[in-house]
Amino acid sequence: MKKKLIAGLVVAAFASSALAFEPFVIKDIRVEGLQRTEAGTVFNYLPVKVGDTMNDDKAAQAIKALFATGFFKNVRVEVDGGVLVLLIEERPAISAIDFSGLKAFDKEQLRKGLRDVGLAESRIFDRALVERAEQELKRQYLSQGYYGVQIQTTVTPLERNRVGINFTVEEGEIAKIKQINLVGVSAFGEKDLLKLFVLQTPGWLSWYTKNDQYSKQKLSGDLETLRSYYLDHGYLEFNVESTQVSISQDKRDIYITVNLVEGDKYTVSSVKLAGDLILPEADLVKLVKIHPGETYAREKLAETTKAIGEKYANEGYAFANINAAPELDKAKREAAFTIFIDPGRRVYVKHINITGNTTTRDEVIRRELRQMESAWYDGAKINKSRSRVDRLGFFDEVTLETPPVPGTTDQVDVNINVKEKPTGNLAIGAGFSSTEKLVLSGSIQKQNIFGSGNFVGVGVNTSRSNTVYSLSFTDPYYTIDGISRGFDLYHRKFDSTTLTALAPYGARSAGGGVRYGLPITDDDYVNFGVAIDSTELNITTASLKRYQDFVIKYGPRNSSLLGTLGWAKDTVDSRIYPTSGYVSRIGSELALPGGSLRYYKINLQGQYYYPLTKQFTLAFNGELGYANGMGGQDLPFFKNYYAGGIGSVRGYEGNSLGPMDATTQERIGGNRRFVFNSEFLVPMPGLGQDKSIRLGAFFDGGQVWGPGERMQMSDMRYSIGISAAWSSPVGPLKFSFGQPLRKQPEDKIQRLQFQMGTTF
């Protein structure tokens, strides 16, 4: 039977009006040449069916439609006695994608990147996609500084119309920043300006920071830092004219050149307030941080507009517009600023909407809010509300928005969205300290049990000298006013024979109590409680005579009814990396009538963090403790104070300072303790904004005195040294190297001290 070939796609698209074949009615459709694709797939994309009249236009449409699927390499159409015959040559499928020469990347990571551009195993092979894949691979390498990378692609035909693709990579060396040049600098030292940059030439920490590898984003950030530095030092007309980034012929060295114009240095001639002030001008003037006669500083001007904006927000003007307009006198190099104030309308909060809390109850979040519904908008209260919700510790993320209510000009909603995190914690860990040696711990805690905000914890902590089993429960809102209530049960075992600095004795304690916390303000708390403690002493003939005498007088087993009372104020900006604020604490412990022992302890502590710059912080800590017996009784020796070690006076062995037994020369502790610490804290050089590691230079002092001894500064022990704190993946690590000052022959020195892991 004779077959007629219909014109191909290109011919059909540009054919004249003359028909290449006589139109006919399709009696059947036959597909030939398929290997992987089902015939039904072809019929699904085919724009004609049995019974249609076939002509040149429909033939062209059919060929275009099948080519558009991307499945086929060639398509021909023939006629066989009224049967439409489709002769199809399929594109090969990708059997495997492999790589050779990889070092910088994981194969699966690159396969994922190629999948995003359409190239993956089992997909149809397309030469254009392979070229795109090469470009994607080069992009990945260029982003990591491999500017000399060479990629060669090999496509290998396989049986059953498949292909294998192999990318052979010659990575070359990572290009490093060889030099950064600042052209046009005269007001400052070029080296000093380059210290502001994140991008640096190779240094001893470059292997970790990667800051010696060029990044367009990092360079943009560095230029903005440079601009801010000049503007904060009076150079109002500073401008970066151009930047050039070049690479050496061997693709290993990068050179960066920044051309800048410093301009003149300006001083402030006047600062005026204008607009509809509404609030007393005298109150607003107090918020102005920049004054006539000073060198212009953009940071101070920004602080001024921010403070004024916050002042209006606190008064309900949520959308106040504060702008500072300069007038330059170039001849005198002076700038006059007019701060224009448009307060807008005063608004109030209509609704507070909380979303994202699938476990935590709404009331747990709402009780932390200081902004109320139907009250005037208060920016300070809104910020405080967000901070208090975040400090709950139940959420990974807390976002707060204040959109206007549609159709109104004086109402906003407060939308709080939280992203919950698991609040249950099962921890089994180990730590090590230079004093306690190996510390094993385990705990089960639930901070937000049943979404109620309550805390339940069970803990086990064991060390060479101390073993603690504990159970605790806390309801932070026992009353609607925020009074907290908690319960504690514990069992402790202490053996001082494992600590070389202390006189030997053993003690086993068990007890429990109830405690309350009363918020005075958002930052002030008063706490009080009562507990029962039973302590059994293990005293042998090898123990000190004073310990033996205590047991003879009061017995080996003693019970105490303990009352606690304290106050704390905490304004520190961060628990992990504090830079500003202070903590003040007063705590007392009193053995009440009803127990076999009568004594009291009073402890005072103050911590203060003062930011010298954005990077440098001064930290101070002072502690004072006093204890004594009551009702004619002695202070129990196991309640004595000790000092020395990484928690008090570094450079001295833990618990090694204070009174000594005249016979055995062993430390027995005392009833008064004074410790102070001062430390200059800096971020780890080369880590940029990474706050996981912090270095310090410290000066410590402290001592313990016994009954009848005068507290004299001449008895104090001092030390200086360096420290490091690292929030490592396995827990916090503290390290110090201290050099004791004014040490005495009986002092036990331990210059290198460290502590890793957390204790319960």
Characterize this entry briefly.
By secondary structure, the protein is α+β, with helices and mostly antiparallel strands. It is 17% helix and 42% strand. Strands 19-20-21-22-23-24-25-26-27-28-29-31-32-33-34-36 form a 16-stranded antiparallel β-barrel. Strands 1-5-6-3 form a 4-stranded mixed β-sheet, covered by helices on one side. The chain has a 3-stranded mixed β-sheet with strand order 7-9-8, with helices on one face.
CATH class of the largest domain: Mainly Beta
Number of helices: 13
Number of domains: 6
Distance separating the two termini: 93 Å
Give the rounded overall mean pLDDT. 85
Number of strands: 36
Portion in beta strands: 35-45%
Largest sheet: 16 strands, antiparallel, barrel
What structural class results from the helix and strand content?
A: alpha+beta
Uncertain stretches: 1-19, 427-441
* Rg result: 38 Å
Shape by Cα distribution? extended
Q: What is the CATH T-level topology of the largest domain?
A: Porin
Name given to the CATH architecture of the largest domain: Beta Barrel
CATH superfamily of the largest domain: membrane protein fhac: a member of the omp85/tpsb transporter family
* Biggest β-sheet: strands ordered side by side in the sheet: 19-20-21-22-23-24-25-26-27-28-29-31-32-33-34-36
**Helix proportion:** 10-25%
